[in-house]
Write the structure tokens for this entry.
Amino acid sequence: MGQSRVREEGTRQRGPHTGGSDGDREPHGVGALRVPGARRPSEAEQDAPDAGGPPTESGSRRRGKRSRARRGKRRIGRWVAVSVSVLILGTAGAGYAYYAHLNGNIRKGERSSADSDVRKATPNAAGQVPLNILLIGSDSRNSEANLKLGGSKESVGAKPLADVQMLLHVSADRRNASVVSIPRDTKVDIPRCTDPGSGDEYAATRGLINTTLGRGGPGCTLATWQELTGVYVDHWLMVDFAGVVAMADAIGGAEVCVKDNVYDGPKPNVPGGSGLRLEKGTWPVQGEQALQWLRTRHAFESDIGRSKAQHMYMNSVIRKLKDQNAFTDTGHLVDLAETATESLTVSQEIGTVKKLFDLGMTLKDVPTDRIAMLTMPRVPDPANPAAHVLPAPGEADRLWEMLREDLPLDGKPGAKKPAPAATASEDAAAAPADIGVMVRNGTGVGEAAVRGRAAAVAAALDGRGFTGARTDRTPEAERRTQVLFPSADLEGDARAIAAALDVPGSAVRTSTEVSGVTLIVGADWRTGDTFPKADPVSGPPENTETVMGDDEGACMDIYAPYRF
């Protein structure tokens, strides 16, 4: 009804104008805008004749009234146009101000606090590369909110520990994903790190991986993961206790399941506990109760059980977000953005709302039945078998290799990967007999080096036509096999050496520490004439637990002392 009226009024026939120009005419449509306080001419004034004879006194008065009305309406039209313009600009300004507000919420830090020779994966012919994001849970009590949620006053001021560490790997084609946890009490080699805030330097050492957060911040934790796995980690995201609670509330909680009644409270000689109390069955948890679930360790028997519970929670969250269309629901995204930007600390290269949004969209199209979550295969640390673990030789190495080569961890074949585009240096490889290569034995990591390993691999190269292979007795110990070259004109030769031994292309890199092509046989290749390739369809390694994203029936076992 109102719409018809606007059209009628905006197109009403007018009588001839006397002494006016086109500029005096009311702009089409403007007169239809109703402005509070504006006087509208009466029907009589609009329709009265103003031609056809000598003007009378009453006719002049009517024309004067119409002229004043037109001038008033022109002023009103201009005021309306200005007001609409201000409104549009104001709305855009408010949008920009809110965007700036969200960006201002984000806390950022350096991506890496240590030098690393690990390089990003080579793009395939389609220009695709996998994405690796390190998720860190800090146990910091250095805020009132965090202290209230757990810990004692004595812990205030202490350096935080990275008690939760997970690597999210999204395949290059974005069709499968995996999450790999490392237990907080895993003993690893920690590289030399520099705290970007204080400038404090920390010498390389061997210690527990959760201490890395206090040795240079999240960037040191990231560098340690790269040192251990050989996987290039693109970004890190870190959250503390209060952030977990806020994010759980913003998402609206997630469903979890326990096989028995559970109360994770203090026991004789076992103080503390998360406080989680649930009866047997499936329950929605959010806020502080979600934090309790994620922190529970004793009732789930160990840190390994806690990691499994965290994986169940994450899978439940992903399923819920997909069910809610949260990846495309603008209103929901705004709510999540507000909470996320207040709760997370991120590496600086993703420190804007747009980049975090783009990051979140990488999981949108990954089917839940192609999301595998597991914990690193491990063995007890002989120096402290009751408390500490080590990466399991062989199985952990196979896991890292699968991540480096972008192989799915769910046991299903991935999409056929386009072959990497050839480069000029690859085409320029010399004939095998004309390639010189030095072979070093670097197998002495974690255990004694394999005697004669460099000579055995050099002999394998010789048998393949690379008669210029020689052994190099330079002391070396490398966890991963590497093929190094000093300049671009030798890259083709280095890749030819790698291909002859089935060494993955990700192991080939430039280095100023060598004068020619150099093959370092690492601790991941202790036997055999060819590099042990990870089987793309064999599924996840042994000696670990895997939770699939579509497993809605996953349920936690409860350690007997914590049942009620």
